[in-house]
């Protein structure tokens, strides 16, 4: 498979990833030692490899909790290289993932899904805040008598 540019190859693989249900990580780039232009690019699944252990002997610190790694050793990757004609050619493609892919009901996994979830959570938060305000108003009007174990409202 050939592409006109590195961006075209990246856009193609990103769209492929979105339809399949994974996120792309830009992994490696090989540059020319002469003029610094990019000669090859490797893209892959964001769960590729394993996170390096960067903790010190003292641990992550008192305010920081260690987070689980999102990486699972996935091998899915694509390598594109610029040939002599200037076209970008796929020289290696590994399609297999070692983890479940996240596909929505429409067959796409998108950032729009994240926006919808945030909107739903914001509405739920507003609802909970309204309930708390109502409870506070009610609590100001009512007195609790623990000896009688009942609620008396002064309305």
From TrEMBL:
Q: What is the superkingdom listed in this entry's lineage?
A: Eukaryota
Instruction: Supply the Pfam families for this chain.
Output: FAR1
The segments labelled Disordered in the record are 48-70
Ranges for domain FAR1: 11-102
| Protein's recorded name | PROTEIN FAR1-RELATED SEQUENCE 5-LIKE
What organism is listed for this UniProt entry?
A: Salix koriyanagi
